[in-house]
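hi! just following up on the protien thing from before. the input was this:
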Amino acid sequence: IAPSRLGTQRRQPRALPSLDPTAWFQRCLVNSCHETAHKRRRRTMTTFISDVELARSSKVLMVGAGGIGCELLKTLALCGFEDIEMIDLDTIDVSNLNRQFLFRKRHVGMSKAQVARESVLKFRPSANIIAHYGNVKEPRFDVDFLRRFDVVLNGLDNLEARKHVNRLCLAAEVPLVESGTTGYLGQVTVHVRGETACFECSPKPVPKSHPICTLRDTPDKPIHCIAYATDLLFPRLFSAQSDGKSDLDEEDAVKLSSFTRKEGEAEAEFAVRVFDYVFRHKIANLLLDKEEMWEKRTRPEPLPSFMELVPEGAVAAAAGSDPSLATLTACKALTGLGDPQKVWSVADAARVFVSSAARILSRATTGGGSTDKFDKDDALAVEFVTATALLRSCNYHISPQSLFDAKGMAGNIVHAVATTNAIVGGLIVIEASKVLRAGVAKKQMTINGGGNGDGGSEGGVHPPNTPSAYKYTFVKQHKSNNRLLEPIDPDGPNVKCVVCGSARLELVCDVDTMTLGCLIDDVLKKKIGLNAPEIEAPNTTLYLQDNDLDKEDENISREEIATYANNRSTILRHLPGGGVPSGTELAVSDFTQKFDFKLLVTHKAAEGWDKEEEPEGFTLRGDQAKVAAAADDEGTGDGTEGGAGGAAEADDAEDVDDLVIMEDGPNEGAGSAAETGGKRKRGDDDGGEDHGAAKAGRLSE
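and the predicted 3d structure came back as:
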């Protein structure tokens, strides 16, 4: 058509085809459906919200308000997030001030979470920030608490708490953004149930275990002296279970009652008696007599007696400037010990040993509670460990450590770099924004009647076999491919994961020597990271939590509660209900974490263990048979063949450690990519409403 005639053209009427009324109605219906779908797409496009609007409308939970937490809270506030809650149990220390910029010297001793909130509100007064001063493992922070949030952001410094939060997020179906830094290195990972691997899908570096005989008799490194103090002497002196077995209870120690406080004995006098036995008597009268032990080692040297080192005596040394033993730490009560970088003299270490021990014992007797295990955030505990390690170093001619260095070694602390924390804090917010936007998209698809969408995955935001919007990002110290940040696609759910997959664990141990208490404390709590484990054998219930029993069923007798307590000291093979022989499958659960799994027990006689390579006397590994069956059920077809059988003995078993479980350690990288598999099936009681009735039902069975 010529341009000059363009304005005069008119559309000619189109002749309608001859249709019967039914065909005409069907065509109109089809056109209407197409128009409705088009409007739906337009409505979905028009409801797109900006990053700032997304931040303002989201509810975020932060766990940890330390090095990463300070940077994260600042970044969240400046990016527009206004509804933030955070949890932290720590108080501010002077050593935090070089990198945790929300704190000042006047804040030392105050709650990190509360001070961080006050500092951020000064430049973001419109934000609604709630600070919780407490442990994330407390009952108030349960699954129902987590369901109130759109995403959880972790900035923790220990693996045990990370495992706990991971399991809570899986049960609550709330996405988790995990992070960590080690010096110049850092990482940020995203964990969404059913879409990515959970935090425990890939193994983490395992710390080296030290043989008991080395710690007790022949240390040759500073870490041996630290481990002796934290793992042996500290729990032996201060644990509430004073009648529990200890590797320090040798024949001579039991005969002299060296680690048992006598009736009416003052705290300081007991501490002096322990000092003289550990650092003087045992070495002079027991170890030096074993000539063959020192043929290739440097002979240890006993220290002078406490009264020779500290002329003022035990009571004066313990009290210092604080006769009540209540208000000050040992270093503050004793003069000249304020510098944590300074290595103490032997005499000062002896004073701190007696003073810190007396104060910990006094704290327990005055209602301050017992100290069952070492805590790096307990100043008195750190002082005791430092003094013990220094005195033992002098015995064995090992380089002594300062309070600052000893705390870092005892607590597996790798000192952080502020820049790394800032980078990781920013990466957390970037990944959190992706998670939140995916959540909004999922809700819109549901509202618009799209279901899974065209090609969408179950509960998913993107089709299967396509790159995920989320990233695992690693911060490197040196450039690789001209990059300091290395993003990779997240791992998929791992069928071999005990936490979110369908595998079970195998415990190889000597069922004729291991007690149920050892299984609970050393395996389930320490190794697997359970908070309140409960155990059922095929024929009976072996252990339930006392507090839950009291609350759930008033008809449960005290005798039954006492039975579960007595089971702790019983050998596995001799437990009620036929015991736990080799091949027994135990059902283990933790209702605080909404976590349950199967534990296969396989016997291996104590004589077959290498005490140097396997000092713990047990091994945890994945059950190959169950993993292979689960893989077949999920259609993964990875070709894994069955390994350890149900009732097989493990004396000649091949040491194939396919266990997907993490151990605490200084470096906590994300590890290698996990294998893809199906997600774990969870029961209808995962919501936490009827777990009391479930326990009562198990008990009645």
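Residues 418-447 form the longest helix (30 residues).
Residues 1-9, 42-46, 451-465, 624-701 have pLDDT under 50 and may be disordered.
cheers
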